[in-house]
Amino acid sequence: MAHRFMFATGIENSNPTIDGGRFRVDEYEKCGHYKYWKTDFELVQELKIHFLRYGPPIHKTFLSPGRYDWSFADETFGDLRRRKIIPIVDLCHFGLPDWLGNFQNPDFPELFATYAADFAKRYPWVQLYTPVNEMYICALFSAYYGWWNEQLTTDRSFVTALKHIVKANVLAMRRIIEVRPDAIFIQSESTEYFHAENPRAIKPAELMNARRFLSLDLNYGKRVESEMYEYLMDNGMTREEYHFFHSNNLKRYCVMGNDYYITNEHRVCQDGSTKSAGEVFGYYAITLQYYQRYQLPVMHTETNFWEGARGDESVNWLWKEWANVLRVRNDGVPIVGFTWYSLTDQVDWDTALRQNNGTVNPLGLYDLNRNIRPVGRAYQQLIHDWREVLPLQSICLVMPIEYPDKFEPGAQEIKRSAVAARNDQSTHSLLKAGQESNK
């Protein structure tokens, strides 16, 4: 089965700890998903959406090394497969189980890779993965801003979290490929930009604009800029650790998923402090920067907007983001999908999950009573209007994706050989191999 464009949504499974680790912000719990998961999957089908960013709650599933509670995952993933909804599996979304501690733990990467492999063995029909969600944001909010998990605020703690998080992602990809050789990894990473407010702010803005690429540079084995290399070395990364990222060439299995919100652009003051800039460049310009750097297929993996007092602000934002996606695509970037995130309203997103206020944020395609919002209807119409148009355009990359119910274990050895035969530096080799196997 070949897909030419992936219209997607997601069900928010963030679970960081706050308040010195004493409280876990479990968005599945706050948004009622544990209770209404069947209804939520029905809503995905109602919208005619075939792709869902979704994952098991790691803090309830990963109990200790080699010990798991798969009960909720068995129910939910079994139901997704029956419904022919293709999951993009989100294995770690901002939090870790209590026994693992936080992202300063050097044991986290290997333990997480084993968890990822065991998940892939239990659900071998799953093909699409985001092993660790928003690696840069996870490290930044946990170990530099001091909001989540370890709640640290130094460059050294940030670099420690970042190297552990990206290593975990790389090892997980490697282990999943051993189980599912045609796996495709859609990194969901926040695409940021920092604008200098005045000439004296140029230097700190330049540093921030270099630092925003670190997670993907390491993940894709790209040599970092000299100033960032010194930054990493000065803050605890060893040469051996740095070289690890260049010895794992998994880029050919990847799609560069990028997230864009109105909060992704920042004004930088001369003292290095920042404030929101609102939408200045927008998705189009910033996505081009990331594409030119990594030369990978792109998927818009997250966006949303508050419904607002008039009720049409989110609808207008959807239209604007879609116009940007089409502009990126028409300028020759192989963009393979778009995501409104998430399916339902979210809770306490207005404080970046760092406060437990119980504030419902009207950002979803449906409210928390599972009533459709205007943006839900608009997205449903957008999918209807564009689904049959996009495949006719040759610039749209064909994704070699199988429906879960069509998975045949024996066919994996054939695909393993096809992928191995194309084990080179080509960023699209896996996708091309998949295209040929789908002919």
UniProtKB/TrEMBL annotation:
GO MF, one annotated term: hydrolase activity, hydrolyzing O-glycosyl compounds
PANTHER family in UniProt: ALPHA-L-IDURONIDASE, BETA-XYLOSIDASE-LIKE PROTEIN-RELATED
Superkingdom of origin: Bacteria
Name of the protein described by the UniProt record: Family 1 glycosylhydrolase
GO term, biological process aspect, one: carbohydrate metabolic process
Source organism phylogeny: Bacteria, Pseudomonadati, Bacteroidota, Cytophagia, Cytophagales
Annotated stretches, region: Disordered: 418-439
Biased composition (Polar residues): 423-439
Record-linked SUPFAM superfamilies: (Trans)glycosidases
Residue spans crossing the bilayer: none
